[in-house]
Amino acid sequence: MKSYSILTILSFLFTVIVSIDFPVFMSGSVKSVDVMEEVPAFVVLIQFTTSTITASFLVNSANIAIFNNLAKIDAVLDAESISDYYKRSRRETYAFIFVLLLLHLINIIIELVTAEQITLHALFVLPLYYIQKLEIAVFCKYMLMVKRRLVLINDHLKVFVQEQEKKNKTIFCVSKSVLNSKEKIEINFIGRAADDNTKIRDLAAMYDVIGRICSMINEVFNFQIFMTLVSTFTYVVITIWLSLYYYRTPASHSGELINTAIWCFSAIYTVGAMSFACERLLLARNETRVQVNKIIMNYDLPNPMRVQAKAFMELVEAWSLRIYIYDLYSVDITLMLKFISVATTYLIVIIQISHFV
Fold it and tell me: Name one GO cellular component term (predicted).
């Protein structure tokens, strides 16, 4: 399998390099704007090469460990007994692939329509962008699988908290919505409050497994996320530079500018999807903290169960479930705000420099 990966990398690199017109580049007749347009493609080519080597030789065991731990969580929480649990996940995966293919197909059609000249090199480079988006789609799917398990833990905690709140009510009331008995059995994991009930400890252990899974996901996708941000930032800067260049050029290059801008927006959407997937996991973690805190503050519960909840809270504080880019930036909704802020700064700088060129 590893030799197959190396063969795939070498064959694709050879195809891309052969498609480059080196005599034209060596003659010095190539415009600077044409060179700038090819920079993002080579950044993505570097990402493809390095990520393939990394996935084949360095993080293969981590990927296996991620799925083994997910299977362990499902076994403890008895996820198979929940109707449509895996079917929803499968439909979600199909939706990811369909949307990814559709968006990439739209980008290719716009590329072929707006491009002034279609070269063999451009056709070979197009699959690189699909591979880049596919890597981020896989990362988002990983995060959603983790989030689904954490939501299942939250459901167990909610059912237990609601049962205890009903017992503490002194006024008789009729509920407007009654849970289906089958659904109630499916998510009733903790059971009755008792001194020998250790189910909260089991849920805390599963949260610890989720924390270790997030750490392994961070290890696997660290470089891919970093290179995605680099290529997206490169696209933004080049789009700004090309816009100013074509604005000052008498000839009309609206097709090339539209094409570059669309690829730039698609790259930004990729970063946005990545940030949104991580943000949803953080929101689920906040819900876990709220439910565990309710158990801690319920002094009517047996003391051993409250002690288990306090240990659970310490685990929640220890595992932030955040994805970091080489311990520099956290991948969440604030990453998009920081990215927009930096892009705006470079827009101002490039506009100022263009007045002196």
Answer: plasma membrane
84: left (phi over 0), alpha (psi -120 to 50) or beta: left
CA–CA separation, 88 vs 79, rounded Å? Answer: 12
Give per-residue pLDDT as tens, 290-302. Answer: 999 999 998 888 9
Total number of domains in the chain? 1
Residue 110 to residue 107: CA distance in whole angstroms: 5
Q: Is residue 59 part of a domain?
A: yes
**213 is written with which tokens?**
């899974």
**206-233 exposure pattern, b = at least 16 Cβ within 10 A, e = fewer:** bbebbbebbbbbbebbbbbbebbbebbb
| Residue in 64, 32, 33, 301 with CA at minimum distance from that of residue 164 | 301
173 within some domain: no
Residue span of the structural domain in which 115 resides: 2-166+178-354
CA distance 27 to 272: 41
Q: Which residues of the chain are modeled with pLDDT < 70?
A: 1-41, 55-57, 115-122, 124, 168-187, 248-256, 354-357
Residue 20 inside a domain? The answer is: yes
Report CA Rg, the chain.
26
Helix axes 199-247 and 333-354, enclosed angle (nearest 10): 20
Token pair of 270 as six digits: 């990729």
Contacts of 78 (CB under 8 A, 6+ apart): 189
